[in-house]
Predict the structure of Helix-turn-helix domain-containing protein.
Amino acid sequence: MTGRVLPNLLNPLDRSGDVLAFPRGRQPKLTEAELRAAVAAQMKDAEIAERFGLSKQRVYQLRQKHGLVRKRQPRGARARFEPKIATERPATMPPVDHPALTEARTIYPATVVPVDGLLNVLVSGANHWKIGSRIQKGRWAGFPVYTLTLEERATCPDSCRHWRSCYGNAMHLAKRVRVGQGLEDRLGHELAILQSRHPAGFAVRLHVLGDFYSVGYVDLWASFLARFPALHVFGFTARIDGRNDPIAAALVHLVLAQWSRFAIRFSNAPIDECSTVTVEHPRQVPANAVLCPQQVGKTDSCSTCALCWQSRRRVAFLQH
Ligand code: SF4
């Protein structure tokens, strides 16, 4: 995959120009933290090269520079259950007094962009190696996948257990869409286009970064489900305190009413179903949970797995 799949907002009937090439010019950088996370996730050099827009040789050089040498398995040795594990969050932690933590924002404020500066806010899952572009199995098989990325911490509850160790700390290239009326209007337009392009169904992953930021925003997604019958949503939320957080209460209501099309899991919530749990080692996976198969190399991506929306069973994730 060499580009981003973008809805053509100007001419919804023109489907020929879906794939836009990456911009020419200076190659994006690959930081040491990102490279370490990618190697720990067992990504091949070719995959890293494609993800970050570098050559395979450059990735190899950077690995050598940072001492990230891949160990060869002895011949005939049985593959052991070890570094093949892709952790849920790369080990990137800002210092505890970093202003982003106290000001509830990303550590990359320049990456927060207004909707007006974006051709589209829903981006193909092909741009996220863990998500994938088209669902391969289960009830939603064949659906293309789109993602939405918001600003981490600014939209999240400060009770999130990854407030400091957020996945977004290692994503300096990700564009975070600024939230507000502009985003909400644009979502309506783009979902209408996707509904007409994919009447048999499409999926939206909420949110690569960020979270549901208001009751009105939750209600908006409820209205989208009613307006766009092809829309299916999956993802995770750190809003789990339904007693004290009205956004969480609104989400619980919507998830229970619409799970078959709105499979949002409550992260580390003390409930048996529609939830996740974070563990440090596969031995700690509770009896009522299934370890994310992608993290242990049993499947390539969410699109080839489908567990999160196919089943209500709790899903366990490995913490870094
Ligand atoms: S369990 Fe499957 S669908 Fe859920 S996050 Fe892991 S790979 Fe994705």
